[in-house]
Design a protein that fits this description.
The protein starts with a strand and ends with a helix. The chain contains 13 helices and 15 strands. Helices cover 36% and strands 24% of the residues. It has 3 domains: 12-55, no CATH class; 60-311, Vaccinia Virus protein VP39 (Rossmann fold); 332-443, no CATH class. It is an alpha/beta fold. α3 packs across α4 (132-140) and α8 (238-253) runs parallel beside α9. The protein is globular, with a radius of gyration of 25 Å. The protein has a 7-stranded mixed sheet, sandwiched between helices. The protein has a 6-stranded mixed sheet with strand order 1-12-13-14-15-11, with helices on both faces. Strands 2-3 form a two-stranded antiparallel ribbon. The structure holds S-adenosylmethionine (SAM).
Length: 444
């Protein structure tokens, strides 16, 4: 049976080309390249000289200009101004951070427990002058969660409040709290549950480290030189120290009901810190961890942890680079109908011991979830069920709990497999096995 679940994740597709057309002032920030095009009329073919515009990201001024426009256009924030001496946020990688949390951690939970209807909030530690994560989360998160941003720097806090005050609809969902050095995670009202905590921590531990790293980054980009150093400095061991402090504080909060199911997360800028933080989590006895990479021009990582068991542990996340061959699957509708038909046959053959449920996400028509009690993507298992008889009875089957997320985009299929089955952690879920499953129903 295919059922629908209501979940809304509204991801803006940002087109710089479209913005340049709509905002002629941006053309001043573009590199103009002459191109010759053929123009034909009934008698002649003429060469016409035209210009193509590509946005010049190498100048920091240009980055601020386009970021302001992106936020206005795609996140409906009409009155938005960035401070020119503060960090200019890259929107795509910040969207990716929130998207990963919402779609890999929150969405599966909603699919499995659609009835949840408690008041929820998201906390952003060190929201900065741009208020960028609360603005993005306000657009991307499931339902209208309340978002709380904290900021310790007075100038940044003032600019973030100005943005809120000038945009009434944001003020309804976002609130700001003055941060403190001693306590990074703020208190929240007792009737609100914290869905997740996000953070882009200050990176550097000293002015010397900051100046040497930033100046080496900006050798070819003289305009990139930093800005206000306060927002990038945490004297107690930079980002590592900051995230460790978040971990320590989260342990004290973990017994509070409102933080029980919270995913505590942070972005990490240096890869070796991911391992160090994972070991720190182990050392502190925190069992549920989550790691993911945010890939754009430069890679960043997400480190997450939680105290309550997550109903599904992410067993294997098959990266979109090793995808199934989409020639097999033209449309999700086609895939689901065939899968449903094939699974119901398997179910009959197993004397109703094989169980499955296919859920479609109401608003995201290219995503579906399949929950099964056996690893039916493995050909060996499917053969056993199909043959039936004594051999099937002897096997210890149909005792798993697996959630498969299939996501179709353009000509690619991205598959995530989530399972609670810790004992089976070594089961490899090759995309080939998935291909074989999809092929098998296609042939049936
Ligand atoms: C790297 S910036 C991130 C800004 C913004 N979130 C972004 O992604 O562009 C780190 C921010 O954390 C703030 N910060 C540092 N210590 C803090 C604390 N104890 N409480 C709240 N914010 C803090 C800094 O002022 C700075 O704005």
């Amino acid at each position: 049976m295919i059922e629908f679940c209501s979940y809304k994740l509204d991801v803006p597709h940002i087109s710089v080309k479209h913005l340049i057309k709509k905002y002629p002032s941006l053309q001043g920030n573009c590199i103009k390249t002459p191109v010759r095009r053929h123009q034909e009329n009934d008698r002649h073919i003429r060469l016409q000289l035209e210009y193509e515009y590509t946005y010049d990201y190498t100048k920091s001024k240009n980055q601020y200009d386009i970021t302001e426009i992106i936020v206005k256009e795609y996140f409906n924030v009409d009155n938005y101004q960035l401070l020119r001496d503060r960090l200019c946020p890259r929107i795509n990688n910040r969207m990716a951070y929130i998207l990963i949390l919402e779609s890999l951690l929150i969405e599966p939970d909603r699919i499995l427990n659609p009835q949840q209807d408690e008041k929820e909030c998201i906390i952003d530690i060190g929201t900065g002058s741009s208020l960028i994560y609360p603005i993005i989360a306000n657009k991307l998160s499931y339902k209208n969660s309340l978002i709380i941003g904290t900021e310790i720097n007075e100038v940044s806090l003032n600019n973030a409040s100005t943005i809120l005050n000038n945009n009434f609809h944001l003020k309804q969902n976002i609130s700001l709290i003055r941060g403190s050095k001693d306590k990074l995670i703020p208190s929240v009202d007792s009737d609100i549950k914290v869905k997740y905590l996000i953070c882009n921590p200050p990176f550097y531990s000293s002015k010397e480290e900051l100046l040497s790293k930033e100046s080496s980054k900006s050798i070819n980009k003289p305009n990139e030189l930093i800005i206000n150093e306060d927002e990038l400095l945490y004297e107690d061991n930079g980002e590592l120290g900051f995230v460790k402090k978040l971990i320590d504080e989260s342990i004290d909060l973990s017994t509070q009901y409102k933080f029980k199911r919270c995913w505590f997360t942070s972005q990490v800028g240096i890869h070796k810190h991911v391992e160090e933080l994972n070991s720190y989590l182990d050392q502190k006895g925190i069992p549920y961890k989550f790691n993911e990479t945010i890939k754009f021009n430069t890679s960043r990582w997400i480190v997450g942890w939680r105290f309550e068991p997550f109903i599904f542990r992410i067993q294997k996340y098959i990266s979109p680079l090793i995808l199934c061959d989409n020639k097999i699957i033209k449309k999700l509708d086609h895939l689901l109908l065939n899968l449903d038909e094939y699974f119901s046959k398997l179910r009959k053959k197993s004397h109703d011991r094989f169980e499955y449920r296919i859920s479609r996400v109401y608003h995201n028509k290219n995503i579906c979830y399949i929950r099964t009690n056996e690893y039916v993507w493995l050909r060996r298992i499917r053969r056993l069920i199909e043959r039936g008889g004594e051999e099937l009875e002897k096997q210890n089957l149909f005792n798993k709990d697996v959630l498969i997320r299939v996501y179709l985009f353009n000509d690619k299929v991205d598959i995530n497999v989530l399972t609670t089955d810790i004992a089976d952690k070594d089961v490899t879920i090759h995309s080939n096995s998935m291909n074989s499953l999809f092929k098998s129903f296609d042939e049936n």
